[in-house]
Amino acid sequence: MTDEKKPLFPDYSVNYLEFHAPSVANSKKFYNDAFGWTFEDWGPEYTRFSHDNVSGGFSTDKPSASGAPLVILYASKLEEAQARVEKAGGKIVKPIFSFPGGRRFHFTDPASNELAIWSDH
């Protein structure tokens, strides 16, 4: 038997979308009124949403370089994922950092799209 933790999600699957929101409260009101989304606040600058099979968040953090929503993939082995990204030619734009619920890093692909990969451990 192994003590290795079973991954929450399939490796390298799109798992989360993060939108820039100058006002988290305004975004929550709009998406609740328009679509019935529910939220879990993680302080005044971040809220998480869940709806059916999609989850994500709204953050007052600086938007991605392109201004597009941040697509976040899951990886059970974060350092390995970072090495794969770098070997394939991706550029790390935010090194691995911790946040409530796990750790993640941001990178750009050869077309300058910014993405992130997170892990729960």
Explain briefly what this protein structure is.
This protein has two helices and eight strands, in the order βαββββαβββ. With 121 residues, it is α+β, with helices and mostly antiparallel strands.
Describe this structure in words.
There is one protein chain. The chain contains two helices and eight strands. It has helices spanning 24-35, 78-87, and strands at 14-20, 38-41, 46-51, 54-59, 70-74, 91-99, 102-108, 114-119. Helices cover 18% and strands 41% of the residues. It is globular, with a radius of gyration of 15 Å. The longest helix is centred in the N-terminal third of the chain and has 12 residues, at 24-35. The chain is of the alpha+beta class. It has an eight-stranded mixed beta sheet, covered by helices on one side.
Q: Helix fraction?
A: 10-25%
Mean pLDDT: 88
Strand count: 8
Low-confidence stretches: none
Structure annotation, total helices: 2
- Written as H for each helix and E for each strand, in order along the chain, the element string is EHEEEEHEEE
Distance between the termini: 20 Å
What strand line-up does the widest sheet have? 2-3-4-1-5-8-7-6
Query: What amount of the residues lies in strands?
Result: 35-45%
Based on secondary structure, the structural category is: alpha+beta
Shape estimate: globular
Main β-sheet, in a few words?
Answer: 8 strands, mixed
Compute the CA-based radius of gyration.
15 Å
